[in-house]
Amino acid sequence: MCRWLAYRGSEVLLSRVLYTPVLSMIDQSLRSRLGAETTNGDGFGVGWYGAGPVPGVFRSVEPAWNNENLRELAGHIRSPLFFTHVRAAIGSPVQQSNCHPFRHDRWLFMHNGYIDGFAAIKRDMILAVDESLFPQISGTTDTEALFYLALTFGLADDPPEAVARAIGFVEARGRSRGVQYPFQGTIATTDGESLWVFRYSSEGKSRSLFFTRDVRTLRQEYPDRDVLREVSDDARLVVSEPIGDLPGAWVEMPEASYGVFGKGGEQLLSFAPKPPPKAPQ
Amino acid sequence: MCRWLAYRGSEVLLSRVLYTPVLSMIDQSLRSRLGAETTNGDGFGVGWYGAGPVPGVFRSVEPAWNNENLRELAGHIRSPLFFTHVRAAIGSPVQQSNCHPFRHDRWLFMHNGYIDGFAAIKRDMILAVDESLFPQISGTTDTEALFYLALTFGLADDPPEAVARAIGFVEARGRSRGVQYPFQGTIATTDGESLWVFRYSSEGKSRSLFFTRDVRTLRQEYPDRDVLREVSDDARLVVSEPIGDLPGAWVEMPEASYGVFGKGGEQLLSFAPKPPPKAPQ
Amino acid sequence: MCRWLAYRGSEVLLSRVLYTPVLSMIDQSLRSRLGAETTNGDGFGVGWYGAGPVPGVFRSVEPAWNNENLRELAGHIRSPLFFTHVRAAIGSPVQQSNCHPFRHDRWLFMHNGYIDGFAAIKRDMILAVDESLFPQISGTTDTEALFYLALTFGLADDPPEAVARAIGFVEARGRSRGVQYPFQGTIATTDGESLWVFRYSSEGKSRSLFFTRDVRTLRQEYPDRDVLREVSDDARLVVSEPIGDLPGAWVEMPEASYGVFGKGGEQLLSFAPKPPPKAPQ
Amino acid sequence: MCRWLAYRGSEVLLSRVLYTPVLSMIDQSLRSRLGAETTNGDGFGVGWYGAGPVPGVFRSVEPAWNNENLRELAGHIRSPLFFTHVRAAIGSPVQQSNCHPFRHDRWLFMHNGYIDGFAAIKRDMILAVDESLFPQISGTTDTEALFYLALTFGLADDPPEAVARAIGFVEARGRSRGVQYPFQGTIATTDGESLWVFRYSSEGKSRSLFFTRDVRTLRQEYPDRDVLREVSDDARLVVSEPIGDLPGAWVEMPEASYGVFGKGGEQLLSFAPKPPPKAPQ
Predict the structure, then answer these.
(1) Quick one: pLDDT at residue A18?
(2) Which of A211-215, A266-270, B27-31, B110-114 has the lowest mean pLDDT?
(3) Hey, are the CB atoms on C39 and A42 less than 8 Å from each other?
(4) Is residue B173 within 8 Å of B191, Cβ to Cβ?
(5) How many CA atoms lie within 13 A of A23 on its CB side?
(6) Percent helix, strand, coil in chain C (nearest 5)?
(7) What is the pLDDT of residue A35?
(8) Average pLDDT, integer, range C247-274
(9) Which of D166, D107, D172 is nearest to D142 (CA)?
(10) By the CB < 8 Å criterion, does D48 face chain A?
(11) Is there a contact between D68 and B41 if contact means CB atoms under 8 Å apart?
């Protein structure tokens, strides 16, 4: 299991969100409160948009909390849209290519949770990935396989549809192998413009997911917090669990829902996987 | 491309073969003479038999020449059969799970060379791997895919047959995708008892491979070399290129051949891939 | 802060002590109960005696719990005397040369605790190190500086005396800089024959330290534990905090004490630092 | 030995200088032509000015040529002044704190070469470092010790004077220990505004150092090179050895000289170490 954070708003220095005591993602890597594992020390990743449409990605197998390079980068990179992820490995090797976020072209994708019975259905998933995309899979995680499945199902055109089909595929194949609850987790994905976040589990007891309340409201409640004055009115943080010391700043995503944060506004909708058209033979 | 070494004989301290000036594999990682690349700095691995039938494996993405842990281990581990490999990555990520030797149960497998057009045929190869073996693939190299293909084709029962079928499969699929010379390289594999080594390339211009001449003869030629008195009469080193300063100690493996070094004696035979029974549909 | 373990007895496979559920040091790296920090994820080290008088040392900056190489080594190395250490860095960089145990010639040394005000007195400590030893300091930790101070003060001849003088030096210099409680911690050191362990802090509230009760007694209480039948009657584990599920197996070292476990028998004595002969000018 | 590059001019994307075939520093890490060692695979570092007066530093012990994070950063960071360094370790451990460039406050410092007899005079050097600076030394290299010596001798006020005194100190102490040629190498240092580069060796046979000719001239000679149109008229690259395929673009620094590239213009002057006022007692 893992912890992740997605930011979308006006350009900020990454360190303002990753390291300042008000909102410290990095502290959380060492001491998570809501997670299934309290320590997320099996690598981390940052993906950010800046120069050009393709995001930069910085990933490492070291724990985030003692990584000096991460601190340096966060202190020098400004971005209007970025993901960070800290990993607690379950099963897959701890290696850079298994660290989130995953990138394909201009897309980023990250996940907190797991596919139950992944070893049993991995082959089916890999086979269902578009042949032209297949060679680009570079790690061995369930998340990356899910990402490529979603890409195959049209992530670039309709993210909620593609994610629903990918999870639907996972559930169908998992159940055909006797797995009761094949999917668990929260997902974030972005094309550099809009941000989509999902909370869903086959069991109906999903990993937690929170987003920040309206920045204008927060500024009134916390007038002394500089970071709130730095960011734009439409800035949003979405996180696996509330971070920092801003009680009342966080809204929990409902079970089985997804949110879109984009230029055209924001939406919070219900989410349901889409099973494959025919049952697997 | 890469460099590898396989030792089979009486128990020796690994450092005697990896670090002593007479036979230094590690120096070669920095300055290869015969290789396509002169520097093999993209990770290394050691596999050795000792406690129990399953070999130990120590792998790292750091260059072998500056790895202190490798030096420590080599100075403390004695083994009658071990593999070492230094890697110059071409294409695949530099990560621990991509370092040779690969291990499955009691088997080790390593390779110097490449599968041309691997991206195009990787999916076919992966699909041909036995479903029960598939989840154990943990990296992304052509070599590991070839190893699992060979396991699928019966490596544990008949190594030369299985390797011939695996390379035959690669050639058939590669050629069907328009690749002229799909396979290139040398391979070593072992079950902890016998050692099989292969030299073959579709083009007929294979990477070099050498083994040591009879130890008794070598002792006469080099009476002052302690290491030759330490090892048993049947000890053999097989290497990608001659190492150390023992001119005359090395015999080159012929093009398209394989060798077996086992308890029942030694054999040097010709090698030819076995194409799949039917052409791929 | 950190956690450590020292074993002395008959030869055992390291994995029996590091990984088996009964006595799992590695689990403890992830979830310490008594430590000031619960997570010890900033590197680890193993030092063991085997081939020759100089011990092997394997150290890494990765967390111990996900290190595959450690698992491999522990499964293949047998030793009658070994140290393991998991680190939670406080101040010093997370780098291999800062991982315990430290080695000099045939000696190993490790520490759980800290020197308060180390930055202020480091220069004094380094200056007091024998000039011939000075160039061998390769890291930047307080522990390594203390080790070289103890070596300077005759560790090889009289370990308790040398450690008492080293800590006495630290206390004198620290106090002259206004530090109330300069030293805190537990120490283990060995020459490959005997094992010395220390528990002391300037404040009189030292980090915990435990050793196993007599093996014969333990075998009677836990007749089903195989590991107890494998080891010799004189085997001892000394640990920062009790590990595994053997309640009643552990004896706490008293405050301000040290123990010797050697061929000539065992002793538990009181410990007091020895201040330098003259106050620092 | 090592290879380094310093850039000062208008803001450019780091990847334009580190990776494009015209000017590829990274290729050089694998295949140096003029260096004493052809492979510089023992770590690398990048220091750059951007957000605020204190530069960012990204360092790693992996070879530069296969480091994906370096490639990501270089593709997303723009800077008007940056250093890169690839290392071939000689003696000091391969660890992040030993990778150049070194940073103190707003200063960066890097070096290609060595202090002969460093083990013998390291203690003298460390002792001569200002007590307030001493605790900030975090690695074990000769270069970092030289940097702190230069800081002690007033680097922030008069870099050429401070470097002359630091090297003078090294020569005096080295010679008093019987070392014939104590210093060898080239140095770059900057405060984020001006760039100082030095070429000097006690023997009078210094490592090579080159800087680019006037950009306006280069544009005329190489009208098809985009990178030359991107950078400002006053842009300069200073490198250990010519990189890329621009014959005629490079001017060699004379033996025993230093250059200043700053807002107030450029100067090339002769360099001589300044011995300490009194001989060491």
Answers:
(1) 84
(2) B27-31
(3) no
(4) no
(5) 24
(6) 30, 30, 40
(7) 47
(8) 93
(9) D166
(10) yes
(11) no
Calculate helix-pair angle for D118-128, D159-176, nearest 10 degrees: 130
Is pLDDT above 90 for B202? yes
- The residue assigned the tokens 């100082």 is D196
CB-nearest to A122 from B97, B120, B135 is B135
Report whether A268 contacts A40 (CB < 8 A). no
CB of A127 within 8 Å of any CB in chain B? yes
Locus of tokens 């072209």: A105
Is A30 an interface residue toward C (CB < 8 Å)? yes
Q: How many CB atoms lie within 10 A of CB A157?
A: 8
d(CA A228, CA C205): 43
CA dihedral sign, ordered B252, B254, B258, B263? negative
Q: Is the CB of residue D114 less than 8 Å from the CB of residue D142? A: yes
Evaluate the CA torsion angle B148, B149, B151, B152 in order and state its sign.
positive
pLDDT single digits (tens) A44-53: 899 999 978 9
pTM of the model: 0.86
Is the pLDDT at B217 greater than 60? The verdict is yes
Overall average pLDDT of the A78-89 stretch: 87
pLDDT surpassing 50 at residue D62: yes
CA distances from D279 to C158, D174, D275, D276 (A): 39, 12, 8, 7
| Per-residue pLDDT reduced to its tens digit, C50-109 | 978 999 999 988 777 778 899 899 999 999 999 999 877 666 677 778 889 999 999 999
Nearest Cα to Cα of residue C128 among C140, C145, C144, C113 = C145
Q: How many CA atoms lie within 13 A of D42 on its CB side?
A: 24
Backbone angles phi, psi at A114, to 5 degrees: -170, 165
Chain A residues within 8 A of B119 when measuring between CB atoms:
135
Structure confidence by residue, pLDDT tens digits, A210-252: 998 888 888 888 888 887 888 888 899 899 888 776 778 889 9
D185: number of CA atoms within 13 Å, CB side?
23
What number of other Cβ atoms are within 10 A of residue B235's Cβ? 21
∠ at Cα D229 (D225, D230), nearest 5°?
110
